[in-house]
Every structure is written in C-alpha cells, then in structure tokens.
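Chain A, query sequence.
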Amino acid sequence: MLLKQRLFNFRSLFLVCLIHFSFFILISTLNISCTSKTKETEKQQHLWSVRMTESVMKRNPEPWMIDLREKPKWEYTHGLVLKAVLKVWETYGNQEYFDYVKEYYDQFVKEDGSIWLYKLTDYNIDRINPGKPLFTLYKETRNEKYKKTIFLLREQMKTHPRTNEGGFWHKKIYPYQMWLDGLYMASPFLAQFAATFDEPALFDDVANQFIWMENH
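Chain A, predicted structure.
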C-alpha cells in the first residue's frame, strides 16, 4: 500500500513537472515567434517606406513632376509627398532623399524668399501646404531664404480672408467656405510656426479653426 502511494505521488509529481515544462516550452516558442515577427515587421516597414520613396523618385526624376505634373507648380501635393520623403530621410539617413526634397525648393524659393509661380493675393490655402518641409530645410541648412519663405507664407495667413467667426476661407474664389482639408493645409504649418518662432497666441487661432469647423 505504501509503495502504491509513493508511485502515485511520483507520477503526480512527474505529471506536474511535465505540464510546467510543456508550458515553459510553449511560452518560449511564442516569445521567439513574436520577436521574430516583430523584427520581420520592422524590416518590412523599413523596406516599404524606402521602396515607396525610391519609387516616387524613379517615376519623378525631377520632384516638380510629382502628381503627374507636366510643368512646375507650387502645389499642396508636392508638400504632402516631400514631407513624407523627409520623414524617411530622418528615419534612415539617406542623403539622397534630403537632396531630392531640397531640389524642389531650390527651384522655387528665391534668395529673397519669394516663391516662383506663387501669388500671395490669390489667397489659396492650398499654397500653404508646400511650406511645411521648409522648417526642416531651414533647420538643417540655416539658409535664410527658407526662413524668409516661411515668413512669406505666414504673411499670407495674416491677411487671408475669413468667415464672420474667423475661419479661413479655402480660397478667395470660394468666399466664406471652410473645407476640411483646409485644416490640413494651414493649421499644422501655423502651429509649427508658432512653436518655432515663438508666436504662442497663434495656437489659439489654430485651435479655433477646428472648433468653428466642428460647429458647422
């Protein structure tokens, strides 16, 4: 009877140990699998962001060609794509990407800060979006022409037509119209201007644009 009891206890102990060991192996396998998947995901993300950037550059040997343009234009789509290219440069450090962005702006931005093919009094909020990458260009190069252009675009928004509440018209040719993508075009630029050049009151104006849009 004592022998049977000992055998039972041994078997129970062995079973418990086996369960714990199996659980340990399972957790270890899952951990290795998750780690491998994380590394693989990071690798894929790296490759895809680089692939997309290089695809843009290959299909558009000159950056003004972005968005199927047949001739140069200071356009919001260029600001969108080139800001993304700058983010890839900031992440992976390929100087070719930075140079590609800089090429576009050096084609348009003159030494006095004026912009080729841009007219302030058109009061088109889309024309603010290409200004976003200028903050990075100025930070990296300290070339004053980029700073002057940033201030030129800020000047547009100082006199840009507004609704009765204070919301920016999307364009002069669309009086009293606020568009959702207009928030994207100008608000991040103005917020970055406020932070970079110490104009804190501008943050209130930026916030109000969203509030007024929500109200209507």
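The chain has two domains: 1-59, 62-215. The helical segments are 2-59, 76-92, 95-108, 132-141, 144-159, 180-196, 201-215.
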